[in-house]
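To illustrate the input format used throughout this study, we show a single complete record. The first block contains the structure-token representation of the backbone; no residue identities are included at this stage. The design step must infer an amino acid for every position from geometry alone.
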């Protein structure tokens, strides 16, 4: 009869099992850590690419906001002067050149369109999480301010159209164009000699009764130009701060 011999299996000690467990645990843990480090490096690289693009967008915004702020500040001051003139005088007591010049800015049309392509791309891709919480908060705040300004401008659109209609009932187009040409020539650095010469003149008006001017002033007042100046200043400060923070965070 053939006798089968079973191979001798050496039993492992508890210590050996424990060492094997430690080796497997370390391998899994190190793999997990390595994968996390790899993801962090990848996320940081992606975030830096977005940060560079967002800084470019914000720089473009600051350029436009500087103009937007100066424009509305200038328009607002001129409109305030028109209010002051007609608060104590009837229109026919004021040199019509002044009415043309200061009345011109009631129909100021400037709007601000943010350069938000990078923000919209990050938002749709869920990539805003790549920024730290502080940056995410500041980006969100900047976007909220932009949406607030856009809401103001949308609400102003109807009033703006009405202002232009009433203005066309008061001022002759060609003379109004002359006033606008003087402004366009120097914008925020006006030719004072030309402006003084124009405002001291008395070109004809289509109408100069107090009723039509009252209607015009009420519409202009409803445009809340001073609010646009305030929001432009806040937006400009927020954009500048965000640029500095992005540069600091990603060493741009």
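Output of the design step:
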């Amino acid at each position: 009869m053939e006798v089968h011999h079973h191979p001798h299996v050496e039993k492992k000690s508890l210590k050996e099992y424990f060492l094997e467990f430690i080796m497997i645990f370390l391998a899994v843990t190190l793999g997990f850590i390595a994968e996390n480090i790899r993801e962090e490096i990848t996320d940081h690289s992606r975030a830096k690419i977005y940060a560079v693009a967002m800084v470019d967008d914000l720089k473009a915004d600051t350029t436009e906001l500087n103009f937007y702020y100066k424009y509305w500040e200038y328009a607002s001051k001129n409109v305030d002067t028109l209010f002051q003139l007609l608060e104590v005088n009837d229109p026919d007591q004021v040199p019509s050149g002044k009415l043309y010049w200061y009345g011109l800015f009631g129909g100021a049309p400037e709007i601000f369109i943010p350069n938000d392509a990078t923000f919209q791309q990050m938002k749709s891709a869920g990539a805003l999480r790549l920024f730290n919480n502080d940056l995410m908060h500041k980006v969100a705040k900047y976007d909220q301010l932009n949406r607030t300004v856009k809401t103001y401008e949308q609400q102003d659109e109807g009033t703006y159209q009405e202002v232009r209609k009433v203005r066309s009932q008061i001022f002759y187009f060609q003379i109004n164009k002359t006033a606008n040409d003087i402004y366009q020539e120097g914008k925020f650095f006006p030719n004072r000699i030309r402006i003084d010469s124009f405002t001291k003149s008395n070109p004809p008006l289509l109408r100069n009764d107090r009723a039509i001017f009252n209607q015009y002033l009420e519409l202009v007042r409803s445009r809340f130009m001073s609010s646009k100046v305030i929001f432009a200043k806040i937006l400009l400060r927020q954009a500048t701060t965000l640029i500095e923070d992005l540069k600091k965070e990603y060493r741009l």
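Structural context for interpreting the output: The first helix runs from residue 14 to 88. The mean pLDDT is 89.
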